[in-house]
Amino acid sequence: MKIASITLLAASLLVSEIEATCPPVTGNLFIKQNGLFPENLDWDSDNCRLYLGSLFNATAVEYNPYTNKTHIITLPSVSFDPNYHVGGIDYDFRKKVVYIGADAGAAFNTNGADLTGMNRLIRYDPRRHQILYNIEMTPFQNMVKLRNGGQLVGGFQDMAEDVFGNTYFIATFGNAIAKVTPYGSVSVFYAQNPPPTVAGYSGIFSVGNTLVIADNSISGFVTFDTSRRRAHPVVVAPQCQPSGYVFSCDGFYAPPKYHGTIGLCSNDVQGIAVYQSLDGWASSKYLGLVSNNDPAVGNGFPTATVQITDSIYISEEYFFGTPPVPDLFPLIDITAQVASLVSAGPSC
Ligand SMILES: *[C@@H]1O[C@H](CO)[C@@H](O)[C@H](O)[C@H]1NC(C)=O
Ligand SMILES: *[C@@H]1O[C@H](CO)[C@@H](O)[C@H](O)[C@H]1NC(C)=O
Question: Which CDD domains match (predicted)?
Answer without folding.
Answer: MALA
